[in-house]
């Protein structure tokens, strides 16, 4: 099942490919750098974490071996913050 943002989260793309997430419950903003934003966009469009890691490794070959871990850490951080729902 694809991931989605929680109903109270608004996502806005910013210049340079970054993204800002607003948690409307708390008023807190979280900013994703262009790499994190790329991963989140892929996941929100239905990609699996494995697909997102492969796309990350393809785009940034130096990330290769740790791309899967990076994607998993991002997803876990967004879940802990209450910003994602499965």
TrEMBL record:
Pfam families: PqqD (PF05402). InterPro entries: PQQD, PqqD_sf. This is Lasso peptide biosynthesis PqqD family chaperone.
């Amino acid at each position: 099942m694809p991931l989605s943002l929680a109903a109270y989260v608004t996502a806005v793309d910013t210049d340079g490919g970054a993204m800002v997430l607003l948690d409307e419950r708390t008023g807190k903003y979280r900013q994703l750098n262009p790499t994190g934003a790329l991963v989140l966009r892929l996941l929100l469009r239905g990609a699996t974490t494995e697909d997102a890691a492969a796309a990350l490794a393809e785009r940034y070959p130096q990330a290769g071996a740790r791309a899967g871990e990076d994607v998993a850490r991002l997803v876990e951080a967004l879940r802990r913050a209450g910003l994602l729902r499965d």
